[in-house]
Amino acid sequence: ALKFIIIGMGEFGLSICKQLAELHLEVLAIDREPEKIQIAQSIATNAVAVDATDENALKAIGVNKYDVAVVAIGTDLEASVLITLLLKQFGIKKVVAKAVTELHKKVLLKIGADMVVLPEVEGGKRLANSLVGPNILDSFELSGDIRYVEFKSPKSFFEKTISELKIRNVYNLNIIGIKRGDEKVEFVPAGDTVIKENDILMVIGEMNDVIKFQEKEK
Amino acid sequence: ALKFIIIGMGEFGLSICKQLAELHLEVLAIDREPEKIQIAQSIATNAVAVDATDENALKAIGVNKYDVAVVAIGTDLEASVLITLLLKQFGIKKVVAKAVTELHKKVLLKIGADMVVLPEVEGGKRLANSLVGPNILDSFELSGDIRYVEFKSPKSFFEKTISELKIRNVYNLNIIGIKRGDEKVEFVPAGDTVIKENDILMVIGEMNDVIKFQEKEK
Ligand SMILES: Nc1ncnc2c1ncn2[C@@H]1O[C@H](COP(=O)(O)OP(=O)(O)OP(=O)(O)O)[C@@H](O)[C@H]1O
Ligand SMILES: Nc1ncnc2c1ncn2[C@@H]1O[C@H](COP(=O)(O)OP(=O)(O)OP(=O)(O)O)[C@@H](O)[C@H]1O
């Protein structure tokens, strides 16, 4: 199983530790502040207070034994760049770094980060997409050009079957699930499924088609 | 069409403005710092420098005319609580607030926020999920109990059809799309589709089933 090292116990780093621990994975938490390590102790497999820009300290912890590292430091670009460089030097296969701006991201990718995430920017985009239609409950990019949208069934859909509505033909969207009250989700529903009032439709499709539908919906 | 007011031009708030503007929606950007408003001017429909805790200033801008407001202030809980309260008082139907911790979230919900988002915490959880398997390219909660996973087709799947693999029966997962190189995504592929090396499988299912599959994968 993969072994993880997370550096920087801000809300982002701590949340990563929590989720990995919940999946029963081995995770080492690093932060230079003892109080942050105190909190991380009860969450991560191990937690050590060190300054991650200190090459000797990293060596002493044996960072080279880890498969994946996340540099979860947002405010100090210099530190996150230096730490990323050191971790790649130590041979860690996958180093993910947090960035706050697109410029930070460019720098981190140039110096060797395998992946860069911007939780604030990505979260803002996702929230915006979910707010554009009163019927839209959630909406985000699945990947590349594909978007997922979850919305309350519009009145015009009530009591019609999926085939009848020709959703694929008319809207170029695909219904991949229907949520009905507390019932289990019906995944990839059959064409003769009748859409009811209060059904929540889970749809995927290409960006342009989903946006067209969202704009039509609002 | 809905009219939006975004208060707080940090990376999160600014990103919301960008995305709404890209969808051709009317958005007013608010921040008390003029330099932040300078940046927002080129992105939002309108941008005004005011202290959003000032009830008279909010009245003067005519906040009551807006349908959706986002209070994108993370570090100052007092300010975000006060602003949320004022916006609800002014009659804005949907007020979304950013929070940094779960405790902040509880407070904001109690005082009337319609929705609270934690971009750092949610981003951390999502990143963790996408890191757990070497073949897993992305993974996140679609909603409630349902998770989406994108992963490189495992060797054991090559040259077999979807029906043959009995993915629904064996893993209780649903293939909702296949990405093959630069080709368009094939949504809801037919059961006789043959899975090839390098295919990226887009799968949805309930949390437990996806986690079981992910743990088996790693
Ligand atoms: N050189 C370093 N070595 C180890 N830990 C560090 C180093 N520099 C910063 N940190 C730690 O990284 C953590 C996150 O730093 P950051 O400045 O990004 O905080 P933050 O913006 O509040 O994080 P978040 O947005 O995730 O809540 C802090 O707990 C800090 O102590
Ligand atoms: N009372 C207020 N009225 C208007 N704007 C405010 C008020 N208080 C704070 N802001 C603005 O909110 C913005 C975001 O504040 P915050 O302290 O959350 O910054 P941040 O953590 O850097 O944001 P982000 O994480 O989104 O980048 C700042 O630009 C700040 O000027």
Task: Describe the overall structure.
The structure is a homodimer. With about 220 residues, chain A is α/β, with parallel strands linked by helices. The first copy, chain A, is about 40% helix and about 30% strand. Chain A is built from 9 helices and 13 strands. Chain A has helices spanning about 10-20, 35-40, 55-60, 75-90, 100-110, 120-130, 160-165, 165-170, 205-215, and strands at about 5, 25-30, 45-50, 70, 95-100, 115, 135-145, 145-150, 160, 175-180, 185, 195, 200-205. In chain A, strands 3-2-1-4-5-6 form a 6-stranded parallel beta sheet, with helices on both faces. A 5-stranded antiparallel beta sheet of chain A has the order 7-8-13-10-11. In chain A, strand 1 (about 5), helix 1 (about 10-20) and strand 2 (about 25-30) form a beta-alpha-beta unit. Chain A starts with a strand and ends with a helix. The interface between A and B is large, with 63 and 63 residues. Bound molecules: adenosine-5'-triphosphate (2 copies). One adenosine-5'-triphosphate binds near residues 8, 30, 31 and 32 of chain A.
Key attributes of the depicted protein:
Rossmann fold, homodimer, 38% helix, five-stranded antiparallel beta sheet, Alpha-Beta Plaits, 9 helices, alpha/beta, 218 residues, binds adenosine-5'-triphosphate
The helix content of chain A, as a percent range, equals 25-40%
Bound molecules: adenosine-5'-triphosphate
Structural class of chain A: alpha/beta
The CATH class of the largest domain in chain A is Alpha Beta
Quaternary state, please? Answer: homodimer
Low-confidence stretches of chain A: none
* CATH structural fold name of the largest domain in chain A: Rossmann fold
Number of strands of chain A: 13
Helices and strands of chain A, in order, run as EHEHEHEHEHEHEEEHHEEEEH
For the largest interface in this structure, which chains are involved and how many residues does each contribute? A-B, 63 and 63 residues
DSSP helical segment count of chain A: 9
- Order of strands, main sheet of chain A, comes to 3-2-1-4-5-6
Biggest sheet architecture of chain A: 6 strands, parallel
Based on CA atoms alone, the radius of gyration of chain A comes out at 22 Å
> How many angstroms separate the termini of chain A?
46 Å
**How many structural domains are formed by the residues of chain A?**
2
